[in-house]
Specification:
The structure is a single chain. The protein is mainly alpha-helical. 76% of the residues lie in helices and 0% in strands. The chain is built from 10 helices and no strands. The two termini are 34 Å apart.
Length: 273
């Protein structure tokens, strides 16, 4: 009983927004991709122009093998942890401060996902086009592709599905056992994920057709189509805001509400609702 009371008290005192977690998540991606960009600058030109050279195997193919293994392990560990530690009593926190705190944590996951998508689908994607307009490829596994397709894309996929699992296992509004899966949320994470299978079509086309590296080329339409699925963010945020609306009202106005009830009496309190 004492431990339960202490746990509830700790949840009540926990800040709604964990600023350290937010800053830490953004700092992690910034440091990670800062190092990746440094690595690319140093070894892209010195060891990444000839795929038949031994240094290409050393600096780039080993990089590829390592990142794939690490990404699989991280995805299995993170998704598995979120799933295995999911609470089974979401109704207990419905309408409480703890639900609002978890909603803020969910927003941190979404910010991290958006930041990871920026690095993968914007920064390194634009850079890839520039690289291949400058350097004639002699392999599908170019330095820019190893970083973009097999590095940055899986990172945002891991982050996006972690946010999806967190929402559907920690928040009553997204409770998968009662409400199923959120369709806009599913589109929001599955669409960008499907860009990775589309990489196979892209590499097949570039292998059999000598094409100029233009983003408007028909071969690249699949990237655009699945990229548009990120617009599911709009529907997802409508659901997130709907889930937070009542909670924020109770959190900010709870004290005033209690004072009003005490002043007008319980018989008239229903009009305050």
């Amino acid at each position: 009983m004492a431990s339960t009371t202490a746990g509830v008290a700790a949840q009540a005192e926990a800040p709604l927004l964990n600023k350290k977690a937010l800053i830490g998540a953004l700092a992690f991606y910034t440091v990670l991709y800062g190092w990746v960009r440094w690595y690319e600058q140093v070894y892209g030109w010195s060891a990444g122009l000839d795929s038949f050279a031994p240094e290409f195997e050393t600096y780039w193919m080993n990089f590829l093998y390592t990142e794939i293994v690490v990404e699989i392990l991280v995805a299995a560990a993170l998704w598995g942890y979120l799933w295995r530690t999911r609470p089974r009593d979401l109704d207990r926190i419905r309408g409480t401060r703890e639900e609002l705190r978890r909603s803020m944590t969910h927003l941190i996951w979404l910010v991290a996902y958006a930041y990871a998508v920026y690095w993968g689908a914007s920064y390194f994607t634009e850079q890839d086009g520039t690289w291949h307009q400058t350097i004639v490829r002699d392999t599908d596994f170019t330095p820019s592709h190893i970083i973009e397709f097999y590095g940055a894309y899986p990172v945002y996929i891991v982050t996006g599905f972690a946010a999806f699992i967190y929402a559907h296992t920690r928040l009553p509004y997204f409770d998968y056992t009662k409400r199923g899966l959120s369709l806009p949320y599913l589109i929001f994470v599955v669409g960008p994920f499907m860009i990775v299978p589309n990489v196979g079509l892209n590499e097949w086309g570039h292998t059999f057709w000598f094409m100029e590296e233009l983003f408007v080329a028909p071969l690249h339409y699949g990237f655009v189509f699945f990229g548009w699925f990120a617009l599911g963010l709009l529907g997802t945020f409508l659901q997130v805001l709907a889930a937070c609306a009542d909670l924020i009202g109770k959190e900010l106005c709870g004290e005033v509400y209690d004072q009003a009830v005490a002043r007008v009496g319980p018989d008239q309190a229903r009009w305050l609702d």
